[in-house]
Amino acid sequence: MRAIRYHEYGDESVLSLDEVPKPNPGAGEVRVAIEAASVNPIDAKLRSGLLEPTAGLPHVCGVDLAGVVDAVGAGVTRLEPGDRVYGTGFGWKDDGTYAEYAAVPAAGLATLPDAVSFETGAAAALVCATAWRGLVTRGDLRVGETCLVHGASGGVGHVAVQIAVNAGATVVGTARGEEATAFVEGLGATAVVDYREDDLADAVRASLAGRPVDVVLDSHADKHIETDLAAVGRGGRVVVIGQGARAALTPERALAAMFDDADIRFMSIMASMDDQRRVLTAVSPLLAAGSIDPVIEAAYPLAEAADAMAHAASPGVLGKIVIGTTE
C-alpha cells in the first residue's frame, strides 16, 4: 500500500510517498481502508521532532481518519467489515493515517453516519473531539452562558464556535481581518473581536454589552492567559488546549482570579483516548443534521501531502485541509 512517511525530522521536504506492507490488525484492533485524513498542527510537531513518535523512524504521518473497516482483530465485536468509521488520536505510538490502510484500536473509532462524507468525517475527527471535550467536558458550558473562542476561524476554533452555539451559548470569537471576521460571524458568533486590540479583555466584554465570559477556549495561552482571566466573571473557566511558549500570570491577575473563583483547566485530546469515541458518538448526529459542519478549505491527494501540510501551516487558513487517499 502507499503511505506518506518521513525517515528523518524536518520540514515538508522530508516527506516521501512509500510502498509499505498493509498492516494486519492485532487484538482489539481493526484495519481501516482510509478514504480521507486531515492535517492538524500535531502532524507538524511530530514530523519536526518537537514530539517524537514512540515507534521511532521511519514514521507514517497523520492522527485522524475516516474510512471503512476492512478487517477485525481478535476480540473485536462492536465493529465488522463494511462499517463506516472515523476517529482521531492515532499516529503517536504507532504509524499514522496518511496511508491507504491503518490498523488502529477499535475503541477509538466512532460510527460515521451515512449522511456524512468521508472528507467531512476526517475534517471533523480531531477538531470536534478537541472542541467538544474542551467546551463541554472540561469547560462545563451550559445553556445561556457566554463563551470566548480564540482563533475562531481555525480548525478547532471554527467547530468550537458551532458547538458552543448549538449548546445555547452566546459566542464571541477572536480573528483577524474582514474575511475571517465574516467567516466566524457566518458560523453563528454574536461578535468577532480582532485579537490585536490593545485591551482585548475590555473589547470582549464590550462585545457582550458588559457581560463577563463564562468559558474560554484558548489554544495560545502564552498570549492570552491574562486576557482570559480579565474577561471571565465569577466562577469562569479557562480551558487551555495549547500554548506556544511559557504562559505566566502577574501576581495581581492571579489574586483577582482567586477572588473571582476562576479556574484554569488543561486538556489534551491525545491524552484522552478513552473519551474520544464517546465524544465523537455525541457529535455524529450533529454532523448528520448539519448542525456542526467543518469547513474544508482545500483537499489534496495523498501524493501531495507535503503541499497539504504547507498549506495548513500558511496564514489565513479558514477551516480544515483534507488529504484523500483515493485518486
Description:
By secondary structure, this protein is α/β, with parallel strands linked by helices. The chain has two domains: 141 residues, Medium-chain alcohol dehydrogenases, catalytic domain (Quinone Oxidoreductase, Chain A, domain 1); 142 residues, Rossmann fold (3-Layer(aba) Sandwich), CATH 3.40.50.720. 32% of the residues lie in helices and 27% in strands. The strands form three sheets. Strands 3, 5, 6, 7, 8, 15 and 16 form a seven-stranded mixed beta sheet that branches. The chain has a six-stranded parallel beta sheet with strand order 11-10-9-12-13-14, sandwiched between helices. The protein has a three-stranded antiparallel beta sheet with strand order 2-1-4, with no helix packed on it. The two termini are 13 Å apart.
Share of residues in strands? 25-35%
- Quaternary state reads single chain
| Helical percentage | 25-40%
Question: What about the largest sheet?
Answer: 7 strands, mixed
CATH class category label of the largest domain: Alpha Beta
Q: How many angstroms separate the termini?
A: 13 Å
Q: Architecture of the largest domain in CATH?
A: 3-Layer(aba) Sandwich
Summarize the structure.
It contains nine helices and 16 strands. With 327 residues, the chain is α/β, with parallel strands linked by helices.
Walk me through the topology:
Elements: E1 2-6, E2 15-19, E3 29-38, H1 41-48, E4 59-60, E5 64-72, E6 84-88, E7 101-105, E8 109-111, H2 118-138, E9 146-149, H3 155-166, E10 170-175, H4 178-186, E11 191-194, H5 200-207, E12 213-218, H6 221-231, E13 232-240, H7 251-259, E14 263-266, H8 273-289, E15 296-301, H9 305-313, E16 320-324
Parallel strand pairs: 9-10, 9-12, 10-11, 12-13, 13-14, 15-16
Antiparallel strand pairs: 1-2, 1-4, 3-5, 3-7, 3-16, 5-6, 6-8
Helix pairs in contact: 2-3, 2-8, 5-6
